Amino acid sequence: MMLDTLDHLAQLASFSTAFAEAAAWLGRPDLAELAPGRYEAGAGGVHATVACVPARHADQGQLEAHRRFADIQVLLEGRETMGWRPLADCAQPVAGYDAETDLQFFADAPQVWFGLRPGQFAVFLPGDAHLPLVGEGILRKIVVKVPLDAA
């Protein structure tokens, strides 16, 4: 997991071509004005979803994990709290891995909670189980899905 501000977004470009495409897309000047929906964010399958959703309480969500994609989660408005736990420490799968959605949920509790403020982002890799969208009020955010070569 990585936590940083959009000022340091260029560091992601060194990870892979797909991360470079994601960083370039997130560097666009109209980022805060984008309408909710799905956007193609690169030639290699990088895509983004802009959402404006009600926050939930921590007990309303479950840890999630992915195998084929990394998540870059960027908060634009609101105050979000996220939970994290190493996937290797998750022992309570809710169901099996769904390859079509690249998603698996776990009933385990997060080991760490941290807050995101507007202009900050978190990167979650396949070893990172995470619980997003915890907070109060409405959260406006972008989730960029970055395909991983090793998947």
Question: Topology of this protein?
Answer:
Blueprint lengths: L1 E4 L11 H10 L10 E4 L6 E8 L8 E3 L3 E9 L2 E7 L17 E3 L5 E5 L3 E5 L3 E8 L2 E10 L4
Antiparallel strand pairs: 1-9, 2-3, 3-11, 4-7, 5-9, 5-11, 6-8, 6-10
| CATH architecture descriptor text | Sandwich
The count of domains is 1
Structural class: mainly beta
Count of separate DSSP helical elements: 1
CATH class designation: Mainly Beta
Biggest beta sheet summary: 6 strands, antiparallel
Q: How would you describe this protein?
A:
With 151 residues, this protein is mainly beta. It has a single domain, classed as Sandwich (Jelly Rolls), CATH 2.60.120. The protein contains one helix and eleven strands. The strands form three sheets. Strands 1-9-5-11-3-2 form a six-stranded antiparallel beta sheet, with helices on one face. A three-stranded antiparallel beta sheet has the order 8-6-10, with no helix packed on it. A two-stranded antiparallel sheet has the order 4-7. The chain is globular and about 40 Å long. The model has no long low-confidence stretch (mean pLDDT 95).
Summarize the structure.
This protein has one helix at 17-26, and strands spanning 2-5, 37-40, 47-54, 63-65, 69-77, 80-86, 104-106, 112-116, 120-124, 128-135, 138-147. It is mainly β.
Summary tags:
single chain; about 150 residues; Jelly Rolls; 6-stranded antiparallel beta sheet
